[in-house]
């Protein structure tokens, strides 16, 4: 008789239900799996057989066929081991069949001795199922208990081994792991590098405050040792705290990639990703055979820092243009298609030339104009247009090294959160919540200029021959500067500051 056990698989960011159908039949003993299992899923045959025997049960000496339905969706990974084992034990009458079996969803990898190992993506599976209205119970390894327990509205029972699962199936009430509320969850101490560690660079810090307040991308150019990387590493400390929906989004991505430390609950701090310049376009935006998320998705709701951005291959940098504009990335492969969120703040740092000392007051540049031109050409005009704030980071003078400790990140963060609050209220009826990602219609509506400010902006556009995208970028940045000043209308001073943040000249 066919026995059906519920499980789930992941495609992209979301989970889909999978029915594990187990059919014992007369014939030579064998174990066949169908339903597009990948190599890791197919190897469940040996893991399940050994785990059943090691747990004190008998493996049926029959022809067993296991179907992973629906059969047209690729099944990946070892997360079906527990469901397959329970299905086989049900089919051989070694496990009690509960009346609520269809409302139990089994997830877990089996060790050869019957122990249950945690799986990747458990949080994402639980969140997707709850969002679709699943009201049953998850039967999971103990290693995934804390992770799934942070999903609002989830019901779960966690176990250490296969025998424990089978014995529990015969009991009237299943053990319950209740979702942790915010008050019950263990406190997580987050220690981020602080802006008070950075002496000097007040102009750059102000630019970073504006970038954080309006979700504007940032480019810093300066000689080696000027503090670009140090400033970038402290940028997350002035960003607003993540909201609960943002925490769920980020945790879902990290769970799929196996980067989520489940015992710590939801991801609390905004991501900071800093890929090496040797990375490929696939590792940056996502893809590969399984169409997995890339660095741009791992930086979702956080910061993507490209240090020495001109050392990246131009083709790698160009693939950033679409996620910078859309806030998401489409990954298409022969077997899979997925859409991953990629709403990140880009922070890029570069040396102005290959030797790094072009324009430096202490050390002369040794590069020719041709070498500098070839070096700077890696960053295209369309890519630069997507970076709202571009500024020089000069080398600090010696007298600035011993200045009193400057303003801490918390003080800057409070001003940033106040500006973000203004923007959230402004964009209540829009699909965005920050000035930096306003569309053209919203930019025209919410960026009123005083007469003096309008004249100044028109003069700058004509003199510098800026593109329409650059014009829109200056308007958005000036809107954020006005929000920090709690001003309704964009004034002359706001425009001048925004124009200054576009004054970086990347040429010899």
- Count of alpha and pi helical runs: 20
Question: Helical proportion?
Answer: 25-40%
Strand order of the largest sheet: 12-15-18-11-19
Oligomeric state of shown chains = single chain
Using the 3D structure, state the CATH architecture of the largest domain: 3-Layer(aba) Sandwich
CATH homologous superfamily annotation of the largest domain: P-loop containing nucleotide triphosphate hydrolases
* Integer average pLDDT: 89
Low-confidence stretches: 181-189
Report the β-strand fraction as a percent range.
15-25%
Computed Rg: 28 Å
The level 1 CATH classification of the largest domain is: Alpha Beta
Number of strands: 19
Mass-distribution shape: elongated
Derived from helix and strand composition plus strand pairing, the structural class reads alpha/beta
What is the fold-level CATH name, i.e. the topology of the largest domain? Rossmann fold
When the domains are counted, the total is 2
Major β-sheet profile? 5 strands, parallel
Distance between the termini: 78 Å
Commentary on this structure:
- This protein has two domains: 3-178, Ribosomal Protein S5, domain 2; 195-500, Rossmann fold (3-Layer(aba) Sandwich).
- It is 35% helix and 17% strand.
- It is built from 20 helices and 19 strands.
- The chain has helices spanning 39-42, 44-54, 81-91, 122-131, 145-148, 162-169, 202-214, 228-233, 244-256, 281-285, 295-298, 314-318, 321-326, 369-376, 381-385, 409-426, 440-446, 451-464, 468-484, 492-500, and strands at residues 3-11, 14-25, 30-34, 63-69, 104-106, 109-110, 116-117, 137-141, 155-159, 177-178, 218-221, 272-273, 286-287, 292-293, 303-306, 328-332, 337-341, 345-350, 389-392.
- Strands 12-15-18-11-19 form a five-stranded parallel β-sheet. It has a four-stranded mixed β-sheet with strand order 1-2-4-3.
- Strand 6 and strand 7 (116-117) form a beta hairpin.
- Helix 2 crosses helix 3 (81-91), helix 4 crosses helix 9 and helix 18 runs parallel beside helix 20.
- The chain is elongated.
- The relative contact order is 0.10.
